[in-house]
Amino acid sequence: MTSNKLLRLLENYKSTFQAEQHFIQQTSIFIRSHTNFYKRSNLEGHITGSAWILSPDLQSTLLIHHRKLELWFQPGGHVDPTDQTIAETAEREAREETGLGEFDIITDRIFDVDIHEIPERREVPKHLHYDVRMLCIAKDTSIKPSFKEVKGIKWLNIKEALKDQDNYPTVRRMLLKSLNIRDFIAGKH
Fold first, then answer.
1. Are the C-beta atoms of residues 16 and 112 closer than 8 Å to each other?
2. What is the DSSP letter of 73?
3. 146-156 pLDDT, tens per residue?
């Protein structure tokens, strides 16, 4: 993975959320400051890729319950050496963690950016994930999850999920964005 394509995606991405504007800026700085920006061996932090998956009718999102972190959020994870783009990472992780058959991934722009701390675990110190999220639209809602990393998986109605004030803040931001998803898909973000 090269920094040029990812930096271009970040430069073209605009957010109306103040916290996310900060994440975009910090992620760009991190990429420019580290040649190994996507490698897990960078124990300061690294880029990760996630998929915000919506149902075919755009009314629900698919969330996983992460086994190690004990949180509900979108599928995603580390960049593999064979991944050429962040969209490839997001797509691969979505397939691995959900078993979702077919979906379309919108690869020409970012859906969301977040930076979050991963707690220390065994020999790996706490570090940051600079997470770049891509939008995916499922062709159907059939799933065959891998329970290797995922403890649970569920489709969640977006409007119902927004009633829960205890949502993980980053998930809440993406739920709010999903209310106007047709504009995003049409390129009007």
1. no
2. E
3. 777 778 899 99
Token readout for 163 is 């009633």
Which domains, from first to last, does the chain contain?
3-185 (3.90.79.10)
In whole angstroms, give the CA distance from residue 46 to residue 27. 9
Cα dihedral value 24, 171, 185, 30, nearest 10 = 20
**What distance in Å separates the CA atoms of residue 61 and residue 74, rounded to the nearest whole number?**
8
What is d(CA 183, CA 165) in angstroms, rounded to the nearest whole number?
25
pTM above 0.90, yes or no: yes
Write out the DSSP string of 146-160: -TTTEEEEEEEEHHH
Quote the CA–CA distance of 121 and 1 in Å, as a whole number.
26
Coil, strand, or helix at residue 41?
Answer: coil
Sign of CA dihedral 69, 168, 42, 2: positive
